[in-house]
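Q: What changes when 2-(butylsulfanyl)adenosine is included in the input?
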Amino acid sequence: MTLVPEDVRTKAKTLRAEIEYHGYRYYVLDDPVISDAEYDALFRKLQDLEEEWPELKDETSPTMRVGGAVLSELRSYPHSERMYSLDNAFSAGDLQDFLSRAIRQEPSAAYASFWLEPKMDGLAVELIYERKKLVMALTRGDGEIGEDVTHNLRTVRNVPLELKGDELFAGRLEVRGEVVIKRKDFEKFNALQGARGNKLFANPRNAAAGSVRQLDSTIAARRPLRFYAYGIARAPQECGWKTQQACMLALEKMGFSLAPDAKLAASMDEAVQYYESMSIKRAELPFDIDGVVVKIDDLGLQEKLGYTARAPRWAIAVKFPAIQARTRLLGIEVQVGRTGVLTPVAILEPVSVGGVTVSRATLHNEEEVRAKGLKVGDLVLVQRAGDVIPEVVRPLVEERNGREEEFVFPDHCPACGSRVYREPGEVAWRCENKLCPAVVRESIIHFASKSGLDIQGIGKRWIEQLVDKGMVRRFSDLFRLTELDLRGFERMGPKLAANMIEALRAARETATLPKLLCALGIRHVGEQTARTLAARYADIDELAAAAPEELTALPDIGPEVAAAIRAFFDSDANRAEVAALKELGLWPVQPHIKNNAAVSGPFAGKRIIFTGTLTKWSRSEAEALAERLGAAIAKSVSRKVDIVVAGENAGSKLAKAKELGLTIFDENAFADILKAVSVQDTAEGTEKARDAQLRLFSD
Ligand code: IVH
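A: The predicted holo structure follows.
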């Protein structure tokens, strides 16, 4: 190893300090003192230096913020202190009740002051510092176990990679806060997504949550994420803070951004006023908030009050009512989805509802339109509730002028003119034309989307164009596209075209059977059912040959699902399409089943759930292993689960399993059973399961 000369070390250190300082001025204080170009120049200098002297590499270097680490999965870790949720209040009365409960338990709460903050609408994250350096970032997860998202949080511009300030915290500090995307940044980012033909996000919260859980940190690095601290897991002994306020001000000094408008209130009346003023001010805040949080300020009192099973007794969220606005219902458009269902959508005169422009809102089905009594031309009340999806609340009947028109649900498909029909017991109307262009387009969009094969960079907009030009009529056509075919499109350079072809190739080669089954869009076959089927059948041909009674013998597959699967494969067109995919090489095979190892194994046909932290494998490796032995993986604990494998720190799922009297294995027992069954390791075995199993035998 070469020794880095002292002057180079000093240079790197100075550059890092400078960059961190200017980043802090820009991203935390919002008060830069140099231009963007000057900042970029400093950054590049440091990058060059680190490239020249790789020994300088350091996790706390600001160059880490561009990302780089790409993981194959997110690992789970237990929180050292549980991350609680908050109880909700909706009125001044609820707030008084909260205080009365606290006083009943601790009479001194009658004299409490309150630390007030906006309730930020993002994703809770815990940042762990050791000797002042950021060492880990975890999502909240189920409160007990979170996912390791350190690689992504390192790229968040206002997260200190190293704590500023004096000698405090030689040990460990766990800072909790919310990751959000500011509304302005969100609009810019979403516009860019759209321009690139990528998926649009419904709201900043979804975008933030999706970004934090990315495996590739360069993706997170390109998303405008910000972290706002709202507390710590536990006050370190040496800190001496007595109040929430003192703790928050200390965090600010260490370099964290705090929620804007946080303040101390001397009484509950003041807290109520704060709630009212914030409900007016919310649209002016840089990011979405859905209420305020009221926290008893005294840390000693917080400790005495403690927690219920779900939430602290010393804090409460006061939620805002949904934001409403009035606007005109210009029309009702009927859209045809991939399953042929006709969905009425309200076309609205664009109106800002709490900072988001709303111009469309789903009306779900004909019944809903009738139940709401909507007429085209009505003035209507629209709202965005907690989950930010806009909805039409009701027509303002008192504002009618007589020119409003009754909405008549079409009896023919608006896309192809075929007749529509309704199945008994269903509210939805469907287009009867299996080749309806809208159904075809939406099916192909689904096929390529995240819930299908997840073909990178081939989003809705590109597929719409490909279908509209007649270049893609069925799934298999996608894989016949050439770079030349794509070059005719607007905004399509040679690089993008090459990338798209490469993405198609990658999707074709790496598709798993469950993913392909989801992508095909067989009715009632979602992720869980696809996994169950893939655990039983080696490939699509085997599944296509299965009789309904064989299907219903599988866990969770009822007659309706079995019939849908049969109907899909009984169609000549579908069979031809499946054959075409096979011909093109899109043909995932589950080799363990072909070898017949699973059908008779101890896990064959069993439903298994894993909970807690495993030490021998990651969660997904263990799942792959169990699936390879014929098990179906359950998502939640219920009586239908056969085996619960509980790792360390297993929480509520284990408790529930005990309550239900299910069979519970610890990790070792699970491992012993695996050792006892001999599964021939085939060369093509799914990689994860193979690695996991090899490790088992080498332990
Ligand atoms: S304090 C033990 N303060 O709200 C107290 N939470 O509904 C824990 N949140 O999971 C939370 N803004 O993600 C706190 N100023 C704030 C917050 C806040 C948003 C989120 C947080 C929590 C959720 C609970």
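Observations recorded in class: The pocket of 2-(butylsulfanyl)adenosine is lined by residues 84-86, 117, 119-120, 124, 140, 178, 230-231, 259, 293, 312, 315, 317 (CB under 6 Å).
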